[in-house]
Amino acid sequence: MNRTQSRHPVRTLSRATAFGVLAVVAAFLFVVPVVWVVATSLKPDGEIFAIPPTLLPKEPTLAHFVSVLGDESILRFFRNSLVAAGLATGVSLLLGVPAAFGFARFRYRASGLLLGAVLVTRMFPPVALALPFFLQFRQLGLLDSPVGLAVAYLPVVLPLVIWMLEGFFRELPEEVLEAARLDGMGSLGSLLRIVVPISRPSIAVATMFGFLAAWNEFVIALSLTRTPAGQTMPVGIGGYITQFQTLWGDMTAASVLYLAPVLVITALAQRGIISGLTAGATKG
């Protein structure tokens, strides 16, 4: 074995160690804030403001959760978030799946430019869209409405769905579509009967990411809602910051209730997410 060959295992080990260290650091940076929020929601008020602060509660209490769940507005906020995010995601899939398939499989001179024009709306910060949306939605009577929020979320969710699915549809084997054409299927038939069934993992991932983008939206929801009747959970959670004090215990308890469904669904669908993200990595 020459010197070059002897160095190869060492180099591979060093790279693996470096990636392992980076993974641990990244996990630490993501996990600690979540643990801190959960721990704060279980602390009594006196312990929340204790100096020096403690990570884990010494005397855990569910008082903040009882206070939050006793507020009828929380259920209304949760329902509004679910309706707005669900409608926005559903409409985005209805429009985004055929749009992504068209961009991926029907290439022409201006297709790249048109795709870029669709995706560029995702680059606008939500605060830049807030004022135009407010002025238009006030005239249309869509303020304080989950349906209005769903419409406002479309420029956020739809480009994301198109971008994720276009890359996967582009990698589909041409033989699959050619076989569909030989069976007499048109473009729409191929999409509905062939492409969509074999693309379910990627569509599921796009659905989840699109839903989370709408579920976590704050600036647009804050701009288009005025009363608790139309506000979503992010806006409702922000309401615990008042002019005179910040209700840290209730705010973190509401945040835990808001995060719990997302964390549970993500954990259960972890394998499917990985499968969907890697489905279009190779052809065939």
Task: Tell me the Rg in angstroms.
Answer: 24 Å
Order of helices and strands: HHHHHHHHHHHHHH
CATH homologous superfamily of the largest domain? Answer: MetI-like
Shape type: globular
**How many domains is the backbone divided into?**
2
- State the low-pLDDT regions, or none: none
- Indicate the structural class: mainly alpha
Number of helices: 14
The CATH class designation of the largest domain is: Mainly Alpha
pLDDT averaged over residues:
83
Question: Tell me about the biggest sheet?
Answer: none
Helix proportion: over 70%
Describe what you observe in this structure:
This protein has 284 residues and is mainly α. The chain has two domains: 3-48; 63-278, MetI-like (MetI-like fold, Orthogonal Bundle), CATH 1.10.3720. 75% of the residues lie in helices and 0% in strands. It is built from 14 helices and no strands. The chain has helices at residues 3-41, 45-48, 63-69, 72-105, 111-120, 126-140, 146-170, 174-182, 187-198, 200-215, 219-224, 233-238, 248-268, 270-278. α1 (3-41) crosses α13 (248-268).
Structure characteristics:
mainly alpha; 14 helices; MetI-like fold; 2 domains
In brief:
This protein is an all-alpha fold and 284 residues long. The chain contains 14 helices and no strands. The mean pLDDT is 83.
